[in-house]
Amino acid sequence: MIRYTLKCSDGHSFDSWFKSADAFDALSRRGLLSCTVCGGEDVQKAMMAPQVKKKSGAAEAAEPAEAPVSLSGPATQMEAALAAFRKHLDAHSTYVGSNFAQEARSIHLGEAPERLIHGEAKPEEAKALIDDGVPVAPLPVMPKARRN
Description:
single chain; alpha+beta; 3-stranded antiparallel beta sheet; 4 helices
């Protein structure tokens, strides 16, 4: 296993583990990497300094170059707020996938039961909904199906 510090084109930095350097390269070539903060797909390795340990048997253990990073939880207040938002969204809203525009319009016209929904819409579909007075807004998180 190898841990890389990654950076997206918007400047967000995060860590991720990979089976090997070749595994990272294969995922990158296939476009299967995305930023954990914004979901951007332009992700590259960031500059990193290796951690070098002293020989075993040395009197003192090597000090890590930096504090260990926890990959199990948010590293910043913004990441914590986004995680709380995702949790609330998943608990209180129905994911309708690419049927979002159709479902939102049906709810607005009273043809479907009123409920909170989220999903994906093409830009022209979102614009048409707004033009027709359907209340919609972009979300600051990726849909559950596309998250890492």
